[in-house]
Amino acid sequence: MNRDARRPVLSVERFSLKFSRDARAPNLVDDVSFEVREGETLCIVGESGCGKSVTALSLPGLLPSPPALRVSGAARFDGRDLFTLTERDLADLRGNRLSMIFQEPMTSLNPAYTVGEQIAETIRRHRGATRSAARAEALDMMKRVRIPAAEARVDRYPHELSGGMRQRVMIAMALANRPRLLIADEPTTALDVTIQAQVLALIRNLQAETGTAMVLITHDLGVVAEVADHVAVMYAGRIVEYGTVRALFDDPQHPYTIGLMGAIPSTGRREGALVTIAGAVPSPEQMPNGCRFAPRCPFAVDRCIDEAPPQRPVGGEPGHDEESGASDTHRVACWLAPLEIHARGAPPSVQQAAA
Amino acid sequence: MSDVLQAAPLDADSAAPQPVVVEARSLTKRFGGERHLFARTPVVHAVDGVSFQVRRRETFAIVGESGCGKSTLGRLLLRLIEPTDGRVLFRGNDITDLSGTPLRRLRREMQIIFQDPFASLNPGMTVEQIIGEPIALHGLAHGAEKRERVAQLLRTVGLQPTYADRYPHEFSGGQRQRIGIARALAGEPTLIVGDEPVSALDVSVQAQVINLLEQLKAQLGLTLVMISHDLAVIRHMSDRVVVMYLGEIVEHAHVDELFDTPLHPYTQALLRSVPASRPDARRERAALSGDLPNPTAPPSGCRFHPRCPHAKPLCSEARPPAETLPGGRRVACHFWRDIQHAGSSPPLAAGPGAKLAERLALYRERQTGAAR
User: Fold this and answer.
1) Is the CB of residue B8 less than 8 Å away from at least one CB of chain A?
2) A3-97+179-354, superfamily in CATH?
3) Do A3 and A66 contact (CB within 8 A), yes or no?
4) pTM of the entire structure?
5) Is the ipTM of this complex over 0.90?
């Protein structure tokens, strides 16, 4: 299928959110826009506190409000704005057209029901299937997520399964009603590396079969390199860089993205000490006014501290996708990108020290 | 492939090998088997007949997935738990049966850093009390001198000495791990065991702590035992590696040998499971099938055989002995020679692209410029 012809399944526009009614309080998700198309995976990557999980939980209406307060924005899905739906409408969507997978399957599964009953329940809730038909379909789903000896495991309780098997059950449940959109929040973070590889391969294959669009939240750039089509890098509530996965890895523009890539040890031959990003993520009380990364950025100049940089297109190929806007356009929110042109010469701090 | 068999020097800096700091001899630990009301609890073979030597100033890594026994092994080395069988030697002395004052004195020399910086520091103690405790316990300093030592240790791990009066909850995860490291250093140990010391940290903070550990190791001449499930961290930090599976060492090699030419099929599978470093390195991989077997009933013969793509009848019948290759590398597989050429070697991790490399260089340049 021609990728460009695919319409966006989800389109989030200028979404901002805070956890306070105080007008002066900073937005903890600030002006975030992205879209995901059929059969595609958007990875939202960032460290703890960057707002990635808050964004993901807001979409299916899983963030209690208050304390969460949407300041602005829309999330178009199936011709409707998710943010304006009633709780009842959302309940009809969740597990049906829109599904979720979370990091810890043990806390998302009900310990009092067998896994087969739980998968069948989603099928019955949304499609009104009979008990026996739903059970047969649950078993079929368990086979499709390659749970070995599914006939025996369908009547097991969650605690009787290993972590990898439980995560497969979660995936079976999430995909049982063939959702158009899957939101996966760190789905493999709690798993061992060999099991992670199995689960990632499984998600990728099922997605290719069903055409489900996926928003995958992760802190792991390895997972991004493995499954993403597009990537949004978040820092302190903002998307600082967005692009195709190739653009992000071949031509990273934002100093935070670059620092992050240099901070990860490689399984290749060692190349000196790791790059570090000085300091820590700002707390909501001390959110910087300008670029939120400026206090940690080795390139920051006065303008960065005073004025938040807008997202602007960068890189060689501008958006060639005329039909659905410019979702392939590589965008960065940095005054100094590309660094080799705008940040050459002696560091400002050295100049100051010499003066 | 002859280069596989070539000896890799244990210590690149000197011709003579460094003395052994800590040694495990056929260490075994079983949990359970206690008699309860009606039945015995199942026996878990956490560590089974493990032997190795850790030499001075090296970083020795123990890698494996959850339940492989790596943390138990670390605690056995430090005598924090008692082995069921086998011996632990520290600087050539058998410490397996040590107790009382001699054991306490020994504790000064061997320290541990835990994974969870939120759980391993007493929330009711100030930083000064936390770091000062081992100093007082081992009678190293008192009063003003002790406070000065605490301040010095805080500076060593990159924290301000003024933090001494604060409590653990006032710090971020990375800062707490630094406090944990300062505490481990307080007794001036020769050996530090890190049990997943960076696993709970965010990437940028993880890099800070890894660099700190490496810098301290060089500065203070420490010997490190790193327990981790993270293969990239292991590759980056260590000199030698043992790979564990269900309580046994399946492979023991110099770090570059292990990553460049893994010999054991489990090591090969582990390395194949590591996600791609770049999107153009994506590949279809034969993922390892199945889960870890139940450790109360480990498989017969080679414990890896139910999941091994190369398993033959012999593998379920006989436990493979650890074969020592020239150069000291060890592998416990009946068929490693045949598998070596089975085309199952892991792809090399791709390095950064040209633009990333250029910008990373700029980043480093700026950072050192700003730090000076």
Assistant:
1) no
2) P-loop containing nucleotide triphosphate hydrolases (3.40.50.300)
3) no
4) 0.87
5) no
